[in-house]
Amino acid sequence: MSAEATNPEAHPEARPELRRRGRTRLDLRRLGRAALLGPTSRDRLPDAIGHVAEAHRAHHPDADLSILRRAYLLAETSHRGQMRKSGEPYITHPLAVTLILAELGAETTTLTASLLHDTVEDTDVTLDQVRAEFGDEVCFIVDGVTKVEKIDYGAAAEPETFRKMLVATGNDVRVMSIKLADRLHNMRTLGVMRPEKQARIAKVTRDVLIPLAERLGVQALKTELEDLVFAILHPEEYESTRALIAAHAGESDPLPAIADSVRGVLRDAGIAAEVQVRPRHFVSVHRIARTRGELRGSDFGRVLVLVGENADCYAVLGELHTCFTPVISEFKDFIATPKFNLYQSLHTAVATPEGYVAEVIVRTRQMHRVAEAGVVALGNPYATATPDAAADPDEERVDPTRPGWLSRLLDWQQSAPDPDTFWTVLRAELAQDREITVFRADGGTLGLPAGASCIDAAYAQHGEAAHGCIGARVNGRLTSLSSPLSDGDTVQLLLAQDASSGPAVEWLDHARTPAARIAISSWLESHPDRAMATTSAARAPLSVVGARGGGGNAVADLPDATVRLAGCCTPVPPDAVAGFLVRGGAVTVHRIHCAAVAQMRAVGRTSVAVHWRATADCRVTLLAESFGRPHLLADLTEAIAREGVEVVSATVEPPVEQRVRHSYTLQLPDAAGLPALMRAMRDVPGVYDVSRV
Does the annotation mark 172 as catalytic? Predict the structure, then answer.
């Protein structure tokens, strides 16, 4: 099955990729007759699944087909007498779904479960029977695809079915593979339904299943589903696009000539490669037309280059950019940085001497298989390294292919017991069509949707403990929690030790992931006093003032002069200092590198020699910068008191983006204790910097 069939309604003989494989799409009427007749011999496969066997053996030559024969016999006898709305025997549906997966390269267990995927839901077959006959894996997959009973869930049956399916997909991605193939066949035969039901099914397909197909990398299913939904929900635009493609078919197509030129270039360079022209599917043509306006011949498809090794991809790229004029803005390297759905390729565009611009995709044959089939191409990702090893049935499966979005979805769905909330948030989550990866300070990674902030990272890493998050460092620099993250950022999240800490209402303005939004909303609902409070109201700085001293232990070489330590730099022994005579006959003392020293000299202030007394006590002003949290001022004051230091004055500025500045003028009994004091203040939870003013 091609991921880029130009017309999903075209006759099979008009589709080169099907002609090349020697197989046509399933003939439902012929298979219906074969299904009713049943097998002719116990030793051979029933004629009805001959297509499936042929497609399966093309990908898995050594596959044991006996289990498929047994699965077909159970499905056929169970569904016997049931008919589809289109008039065919019902068995043609599981056969068609299984053929779709077989052509994608699904392994035998997936095909077995696909043949049986409706038996438990629509017949008298039970899960226990499936388990006894076909084993735990097939039983688990069939159960995952089986819908919940409408009689039990009523209007919530559809969202609860998807919830059940997604939870099962978290342990076995093959569940969703079957669901996608099932929906594709249903969409192909949707014409027998009423228009309003067609529209309802198409909208769910557009909002949920197409994004899921994209995330699982199953482009072959995704592109055909897009075209089928496009035809139902936007019939006028679909017809205009179809007319545009039909008009192009009657014109001279420049892409075959460009492909020949590429073949010649690669042949001369000694690079073994297969070069194809890949026509765009309907939705892709429609999007390009909206973006570029009038289309040229080279816009209706792309050139695909398939090679053997990763290094060959870059060799092809070098030749293309040497022998053609590259369009640099179109270059993307998805080999070095794969997409979150397993996709890998090099994308570029080249201009020909005739003035055409052709898009070129370069990938290995293995990359091509994964690009078409996504997780289906992985075979059985749960197979143990040693066939005799038995997995613990009570232990959750470890799936190394599980992408971050699925883990996030499985986490937040547990906090959304209401089906309406789950359904709404699921659609919003799946609408996020790009993923970023950020690195944790401990070396792990977090998968987040594009546009996620530090708040989202906090809840993704720490769960409900993120309620106490007070700040973050991104790439080593302090930043606010509302800061958006970019792909490849390193984020270190700072948590308060105070159990009473909680999120602010403003966090909801910057949270993008459902897990973060649900957790924040739940906490605010359980703490209405915090929800009503606002941190944005302007407040005057809080000041605590004690007895003020003068020059501390600084002495000026000017008899009877009043000495004052400058508040701008608060010098302490053994700082190098300078003194200046100011109005009233007082002498102000500055650190020698203070900016005010140059200003004093510039305006002609009289310089006065100053020195430090032999006594060790001193006065200093420190600036503590911290993330706001309850009891911070008390904790800082306590830390200062433990060092035996007197607070002369303190000023707390209003918080800005949850950050607070505290200024302390302190009287130290010994200047040598200043470094220890500053360390003690930095050790207070929430304080990220302490410096002299």
Answer: no
